[in-house]
Predict the 3D structure of the following.
Amino acid sequence: MAEGAVDLAELAKSFKKFAVHGDTKASGQEMTGKNFVKLCKDCRVIDGKNITSTDVDIVFTKVKSKSARVVNFEQFKQALKELAPKRFKGKDEEEALQETYRLIAGKEPANIGVTKTAKAGAVDRLTDTAKFTGAHKERFDETGKGRGRAGREELPDTSGYVGAYKGAGTYEEKVKESQ
C-alpha cells in the first residue's frame, strides 16, 4: 500500500455502518440512495460548492444497476471514483480518490438533528394521574395504572346482589356452614 493510502477495510466498515443506518432489514451489503447521500453529507464529501446532493444523486443513479435501488461496495467505490475529481479539483485522480476515502474511512452515521423527547414540568404535571378530577379520575386506580374498559364504560354488575348490599358474596359461606 502506498504512503498515506487508506485501508479499504476501514472504508468497507463505514460503508456497512451507513448501509444499515435507519433500516432494520438491511444486511449491510447494499446501500440505498438516501443512505449514500447521508454518508456524503456526514463525511463532508458534499461541500455545497463543488459537490451538492443533486450531484451525489446523479452519480448514484449512474453507478447502480438499471432496475436496482441499491449499490454494493464495488459500485460504491465506483461512485466515489466519479465524485473525487469534482470534490478535490487540482489534484490528480488517484490522489483525489485517496482524499475522498480519507474523509469516509472510520466514520459513523451522525444523529445530529434527531428529535429528542421533551421532559418539561408541564408534561409531568399534565400526565400525573393523582391530579385528575371528575370522570377522568375514574379511569385510573390508586397507583395511576389505567383500568381499561372498566374505567371508560359503565359495566353492569352481574353478581346477583343489589348494589348497596353489604353482605355480597356471603351466601355460599352460610350455606356451606349449615351443611
Remarks:
- The chain has a mean pLDDT of 84.
- The beta strands are 31-32, 70-71.
- The CA atoms of residues 20 and 27 lie 7 Å apart.
